[in-house]
Write the structure tokens for this entry.
Amino acid sequence: MLSKNFVLTGVLEKMTREEAEKKIRSLGGKALDAVSRKTSYVVAGSEPGMVKINKAKELGVRIIDEKEFLDMIK
């Protein structure tokens, strides 16, 4: 996960947003607030923000669900 940038949107079921951000940082990644060309992944929980989802689609940023995110950080 080294040098990957993540944006979280929506509600995660298995951990809080703060826990997810801490885990990302502990593995060498960055947790960003907004989607940009520097974003590697958007993690979409339940009820994701459509502004972030639409921006990710516009920029071609990969959108993953919580399960895929958890598999990445194991």
